[in-house]
Amino acid sequence: MEMFDSIIFLLDSMVRLTVPLLLAALAGLYSERAGVFDIGLEGKMLAGAFGAASIAYLTGNAWLGMLAGIGVGMVMALIHGIASITFRGNQIIAGVAINFLAAGLTVFLGQAWFRQGGNTPALTMGGRFQAIELPFAEAVKDVPVLGGIYSELISGHNIIVYIAFALVPFTYWLLYKTRFGLRLRATGENPKAVDTAGIGVNAMRFQAVIICGVLTGLAGAYLSIALSAGFIKGMTVGMGFIALAALIFAKWRPWYVLWATLLFGFLNSLQIRLQGVELPVIGQVPVQAIQALPYILTVVLLAGFIGKAVGPKAGGIPYVKER
Amino acid sequence: MSARKPLPRWADIALLPTLNLLLAFTISGLVVLMVGENPLEAMRILLYGAFGYGEGFGYTLHFATNFVFAGLAFSIASHAGQFNIGAEGQAYLAGIGAIMVGLALDQTHWLLVLPLAMLGAGAIGGIWGFIPGYLAAKRGSHVVITTIMFNFIAAALMVYLLNNVFKPKGQMALESASVVNAGKLPQLREFWDFFGYAPVNVMMFVAIIALIGTFILLWRTELGYKIRTMGQNPNAARYAGISNSKIIMIAMTISGVMAGMIAVNEVLGVQNRLVIDFVFGYGFVGIAVGLMGRNHPIGIALAAILFGALYQGGLELAFEMPAITREMILVIQALVILFTGAMEGLFRTPLEMIFTTLEFNKNSKEQKG
Amino acid sequence: MAEKSHNKMRRRQDSAASNIAIELIGINKHFGPVHANKDIDLRITQGSVHGIVGENGAGKTTLMSILYGFYRADSGEIRVNDKQVKIKDSSHALQLGIGMVHQHFMLVDNFSVLENVILGVEDNFLLATSLKKARAELSRLAKEYELEVDPDMLIEDLSVGQQQRVEILKALYRGAEILILDEPTGVLTPAEADHLFRVLETLKKQGKTIVIITHKLREIMAITDEVSVMRRGAMVGTLKTKNTDPSQLAELMVGRSVLMKVEKGKANPKEVKLEVKDLVVKDDIGVVRVKGVSFNVRAGEIVGIAGVSGNGQSELLEAIAGMREPEQGEVFVNKRAISSDKDDGAAKVRKAGVAHVPEDRQEQGLVVSFEQWENSILGYQDEDKYGKGAFLSIDACRNEAKRQIEKFDIRPPNPRLITANFSGGNQQKIVLAREISSDPEVLIVGQPTRGVDIGAIEAIHNNIIAMRDAGKAILLISVELDEIRSLSDRVLVMFDGHIVGEVDPTTATEGDLGLLMAGVSGSGAKRVTATKKDKTTGVSGSGAKRVTATRKKKEHK
Q1: pLDDT at residue C48 in the model
Q2: C292, C329 in Cβ contact below 8 A?
């Protein structure tokens, strides 16, 4: 039973760690599928986290905080959009700039407003999202195996967790079963075809970029007001890049994104769990190896060793209407 | 379709970056206002901190040294048409080479340590740049993504190595043994009091040599010509028989070597040991420096000093005005990168139109006259 | 002026007989100084197949682009079904019933056929209904017009011919009554081309109007009812196909060209310097463009290859320059085979003594952001005269640049000036100066006077002649027939990847060349005489070896 409890615990932690990755990766999915490269996921998440925590603290209301996080994410995304689409600038550099901007502004404003070294003050009950007990969770708790899975693993998360997982089938539906999704995907593959079909390429891209902002803002909000109790300087610690790695690893497909982020989330929870633990035969596992695994896997994929990672054909190239 | 001519040289090199910088400063000034401080006062403190007294100036130069290497790293790859975002990781890993040489030769003389450390650090940094270059040239992997990944892999690797290889037994702190003797590169203040406690050291001269060397490489050698051709027009490079794949790999390697020099500076010139995260973001500043400096050694030198001043002045500012943290510098840096790199069209297009109109008026006047 | 009133009379007579689907009146279009369409009048009868022929740069594509909304005319009137319209963009054109099938398909590769067809004209937010409707409609269209295609297949898995069918289906799905096809058979196999013609016939029977832009006279004769000929931006004439023949069309197409005044002595060819043997070359997307070409060039002669662009000349040139690896066949310089490599093959070929003036100077021949002197060493940067070892001697380079400027009269004579600031003609002179100054044994030249002003053209031509007289072997590829005829000692004609004939430029007529270039006749014989009575339609053969190219699927780049 202990083993089982351990596993459940591990998986539970995995779920919690996966959510920001999942949201950020989905955010990147929309943007890149429309042809706008986004390496600024990290910065947008960070900014969203800060926005959410600040407003949640000031208003004592988690929902307002979440909205604020989403709003900030959208603003940062618009900056990226204006630079990349309107000014046809280099999307990579714009992403790098967004990351620095977020890193600087969050701490700077945090210190100016809250004087806590760049962090926001701890949130009270109202400011955080609380765990939601699914119906019957208490009742089935003691049912062997399934009860544990239901009451510990599936129930008891906050609302954003459920939203995040629900977004996967929703994204699949949106991208592949609706007109919007068809046009969005076409924009990232052959913008000329889209243009001659009478659809505005730049308008399409802006919509994708804004969705990206919403989701990264949400991811940030999750970090600061659901997973933790406030914003801590630099709290995204590279998650935006792991999300990017997961997106590439998932070959830009929604359901694969779920598996990829679960995998990376699992690796993350695993390395936390294994720190200092002596395993039989192997001895102490170098946790850094596990930490580095998502990145190594992505490089291996990019090198074409485990299948090809072919992104949206028109990705990263600003669309210029000829003549 | 209006034919817009490229800007005259001086406008491209001096006017545009100045406009971008002004805009970045203006916006930052607004942010400062927003938190209730006086931007002009902040500017004064910043300038004083950077240039107003010996120690401050020394720090400015010290930061600038790192930024020169980082900027050169980004620029050399840029000239070949590649964005090396991995200088951070390349410099970090290169620390291994620096510390190992420093510790091994600690009882000799710094004149021996210096070149060998540069060799060691450069080799490792070079390899860390070569691999993404190889993957790009031969497997078509995007350099930006791979170098970002390599930054993280380097970070994980370094923590492991520090913990398991370099940390002396029994020590708690996550750092290596220290160099005490020849491994310590002489700091300028040993010769000249003026710089106070600033850690600016001989690597500053190496940086100057690197700037000159890069100029010679890019504009006075065959290899440099090939690199520049490839970056400006890969098709013309093919036409000229210049191997695209070879050039990418070479440029990325040199780029990594340059980044490795940051390690020599920090590990042996300042910290005197290998500490965690000693690169401290300098690798990324190189992107801003390279862009602002228009990928030219003179521009890079000036931009490096500018950012050095920003960093040192920012420290001073954080000290004097508690409301403003050193993160303000990151904001300025971000805005510079944004305007110089991504939103070029903001100023360039109107400027081009202005110049074309002026040119046109001048020509028509000449024709009439 | 008399012509115009004559046309007006004809108009009144004809419109009584049938409907005019499209009428263009006085269309003018400029691109900067280039007058691409000069006062064009055109009437396209409803329910007919109307061909538009002309050489490169005749203005056909520009004109059609105006019709389907990609460009706006500078002046003139457009009437669709006898109503005057101003066509704003391509969706507006579609609303008017005008659909275009482009040369380069506007398809999303990793979408299915169905998805491509409905893109932009989906019924509502949910795709399911649109897809169902499209599937039914496609099935109907497929049966009616022989346009069978598996609706669920991905575009990237289809052959080029099938992809073209999708393009046509797209237009029909959107209710196009007037279909414009731009060089439709360029990428098709003969079997696919025949199938296309059957489809077009069926469409015509159903009352659709078809406009087909092409330079292939065989096609014109085979399927069109009327044909309009354009030349150098002007509409030269419109004829009923059954009242004309390829020779007449060819002459109209090519015109009475004046042999340019080039002072040229008699050639004195010596040994063979360049030999091309059974060369087969593919382009970037895997389509075979050079289908078995053999010829040689001797020292002291200029061999010109004439032909409309897109018939394999570019790939041929790149293969000889060592920049493109052939599938089969070999290239010999001074009797030694050259090796090619897509990455850096050009270097070795240069060392073997071949200089190359590329077709597109801005894309390949120059780095426009470099100063002039930097471009004067492009390709030759390794040579010792520019610097010992790894270094470049700036002085040596700049001196050489100055020498080239003087010798070739490059203006302004400033080696420090950024190349982008030189005019087109002077840029070309920079390239030519560089290649000639390397003192090669073989000089291969592509489109030497494209985008070059009159003043520079003469100078460039004289340079080429001088090289020939100095005993060099020169291969000249150009779409400008005048240029080929004036400069060359021997003229080969390239059509559809083959050398379809060789002529003596002093005796061949425009008609001969036009026919060869349009793929109508060809026999590999030294002299081709095509008489006006010779209605050699449907015969395109050449003595050259034909390589059956296996139609491979479009390769992913």
Answers
A1: 92
A2: yes
